[in-house]
From TrEMBL, chains A, B:
Belongs to the ROK (NagC/XylR) family. Keywords: Kinase, Transferase. GO terms for molecular function: kinase activity. This is Sugar kinase of the NBD/HSP70 family, may contain an N-terminal HTH domain. InterPro entries: ATPase_NBD (IPR043129), ROK (IPR000600), WH-like_DNA-bd_sf (IPR036388), WH_DNA-bd_sf (IPR036390). Gene3D superfamilies: 3.30.420.40, Winged helix-like DNA-binding domain superfamily/Winged helix DNA-binding domain (1.10.10.10). Pfam families: ROK (PF00480).
Length: 419, 419
DNA sequence: GCAATTTGTTCAGTGGTTGAATTAAATGAC
DNA sequence: GTCATTTAATTCAACCACTGAACAAATTGC
């Protein structure tokens, strides 16, 4: 078994899409499983056959395989239709494979387990200031938390099919964390440091550990938990830095080298404040956590990172004028940057996540105002701006969901496992 | 036969990827054909088998079908290898299907024919000021030019499998031109107006006419003609408006509604000059043709649109200080916007196209300067900024190439045609 | 001239889909 | 309460396209 450490979603089949004899079944397993996953009510075999164009015979055979592999179960209270033999509804199994989502952040560690149906079965958080901790120690503690989550999953009869770790920084393909400024990490080889701690069962085709940018996985979490229908959106994670996950047509876009989403350094005032990146007038200097805290008169308060947002929200709710102005200005800067992005990418939804989620009531109006002023097509069809459905849990949940999604997209790897 | 007018590349198979018996062959036809198309020297059947993982027997059978359908031919001077029976090289046929690319622009009409190998076989241009002409008349003249191109293609033994029309404006799916400000078009139903003029043979799976934004098709042209390897890039078409085509991982990204690429209205000076879009400080007001001409002291010269760029280039070459300053400023504004885009999308290449292509010697330095100042990852891996390989012909060639690409991606539609 | 080598084809075998017939399980009319 | 009707799911022979091995073809090198 070759360990497959990787960052991106590259499925690099060297055979480049050639369809061999067995691929036929492999592909149809995925088609049927996806159909069951996407349906809003448990579909019948016949319904799947009608929807996909496959024969009922084929669907039956495929479903048999899926049930035998504990990926699908029959919903017992059969959904009533009308005349005729009642259909047996098919649902994703809730006792089969599951995904493990992990997160290392400035002041907490998180681990969560998501099953095939998308339900968050467990969610563990350990608060701790990780800035003074060495990467090796931080990952050691993460591994302990992961083991706890895994034990809980096993008690439920679940099998972890893979893990995904969210890190607030630039991650190389291969899982090398190039730079995580707020953690103080540089060139940390996460897979190597976690090598002694098995996180998940080996499943063919699913990497045992994927390391990815926090903003990317948070966007996946939002894709997973958010309202259906929005398949192209920008998920903005507002923390000390500002990151964005870009989901286009339902798939996360990672960029040529996996470093997309650096929305924090979009220029919003080209001759404005100098930024640590070397540029000038970057969004981060106007809508980043430090800038907002300073404008609200809380500079140097040295709040834990995740309480800064709730503190600002409290002040805003209380009507503190400095805070309200600070949020309005930040929202305007954010709106300018977002308007540019929407003009460029023609997105229909913008999600305010991370620290922006609790501040959405105050950030949303100026963002919406800038969008409607500046986006050419806003008149034809409006852009939705909404807070993240999952809030701070997005990244860990998104990571776990990305594992589950891998199983759904290519179930044959899982089925090959247990014979 | 249902006419399939469409704008986007939506292949909306209602069966959602289900793999039926025959799809096996269908998919492998595409795999093998793509392999032949992508190879830099004519591959052998055995080489394709080794590369794809298919059996030599299967590849032979597939190739037989492709040759019978005039999509592939055997290269006669067989490429020498070493010992063993010499391989028979396979190349794309140059007498099979071809694509028709059309363009309506402010002061010219164009039609071009690209064959399967990607060679531009014919390229016709009619210069004419189309602003005073009604859409119906303009399209009538375009149809005449298209008929000419088609006749030339038929004389070569080619069969036009589809057509793509580039328009400088917002195009709805369905081919409705919502707004083409510089042509003075609004809600022009192009497919309806061209309905009387058959442009191409009906081929299953290929729409007889695709209408798309000029910038999008120009980006496809660049993908087609540019150096291989750059699969994620931004192609900027600088005219009166500024448009961009976004190619991500080798596929054109069109946005949720098909209106992506409005880079001209990215804010570069949020409190700057008011723009006709209603916003303020849009890129177009600093790097658009009118802005540059005005800054160079040529305001109101009323030059034909396509000569403005060459005129500016002449002045710059002659060392005219006003022009040099104007271009430097435009380049800086462009660089600010592009830096934001590159930070967001992690692109490795930026192509200066349209009117920017001849001005690249003067625009490139400030653009590169802003990128290296402002792009976070520029230090790790540089961003290439280069002029468009095709220049003004990009859009028509790109349209024609997009038709050809459709045939390569799904050859079964073409093969079903001639029995 | 002959062994070695590689390409391409032929052919029986097989996996997985197909389509029709069959069985299963309900509703509704009389 | 029985039976025609309706829809769901399964069974089975047929078939299509890929597989693997054997074979024929064409060239190099000794």
């Amino acid at each position: 078994m070759t360990a497959l450490w990787q960052c991106q979603g590259v499925t690099s089949t060297s055979t480049a899409g050639a369809v061999r004899q067995g691929s036929l079944r492999e592909l149809n397993l995925a088609v049927v499983l996806r159909r069951i996953a996407a349906a809003d009510r448990p579909p019948s075999r016949a319904g799947i056959a009608a929807g996909t164009g496959l024969t009922r015979a084929t669907v039956s055979a495929v479903v048999d395989d899926l049930i035998a592999g504990r990926l699908v179960a029959e919903a017992e209270p059969a959904p009533r239709t009308g005349a005729g033999r009642p259909a047996r509804g098919l649902v994703l199994a809730s006792d089969g494979p599951a995904g493990l989502g992990l997160e290392v952040n400035v002041d907490y560690l998180a681990a969560c387990v998501v099953d095939l149906t998308g339900t968050v079965r467990h969610h563990l958080v350990r608060r701790a200031d990780l800035r003074p901790v060495s990467p090796a120690d931080a990952l050691e503690r993460l591994a302990a938390l992961a083991a706890e989550a895994r034990a809980a999953a096993v008690r439920d009869g679940l099998t972890l099919a893979g893990a995904a770790l969210a890190v607030p920084g630039l991650v190389d393909s291969g899982g090398l964390v190039r730079l995580a400024p707020n953690l103080g990490w540089r060139d940390v080889d996460v897979p190597a440091l976690l090598a002694g701690h098995p996180l998940a069962e080996p499943v063919e085709g699913i990497p045992p550990l994927v390391v990815d940018n926090e903003a990317n996985l948070a966007a996946l979490g939002e894709l997973h938990a958010g309202p259906p229908g929005s398949t192209s959106f920008l998920h903005i994670t507002g923390e000390i830095g500002i990151g964005a996950g870009i989901v286009l047509d339902g798939v996360l876009y990672r960029g040529a080298r996996g470093w997309s989403g650096e929305i924090g350094h979009i220029p919003v005032q080209p001759q404005g404040r100098p930024c640590r990146c070397g540029g000038q007038g970057c969004l981060e200097r106007y809508a980043g956590q430090e800038a907002v805290l300073a404008a609200a008169g809380l500079a140097g308060a040295d709040l834990p990172a995740d309480t800064a947002a709730t503190r600002l929200a409290d002040l805003a709710r209380a009507g503190d004028p400095a805070t309200l102005t600070a949020l309005a200005d930040a929202g305007t800067a954010l709106g300018v940057a977002v308007a540019g992005v929407v003009n460029l990418l023609d997105l229909d939804t913008v999600v305010l996540g991370g620290g922006y989620a609790p501040l959405a009531p105050w950030l949303r109006p100026p963002v919406v105002a800038e969008i409607s002023r500046r986006v050419l097509t806003a008149a034809w069809s409006p852009v939705t701006v909404r807070p993240a459905a999952l809030g701070a849990r997005s990244a860990a949940v998104g990571g776990a969901a990305s594992v589950v999604r891998r199983v759904v997209d290519r179930p044959v790897g899982w089925l090959a496992r247990s014979g």
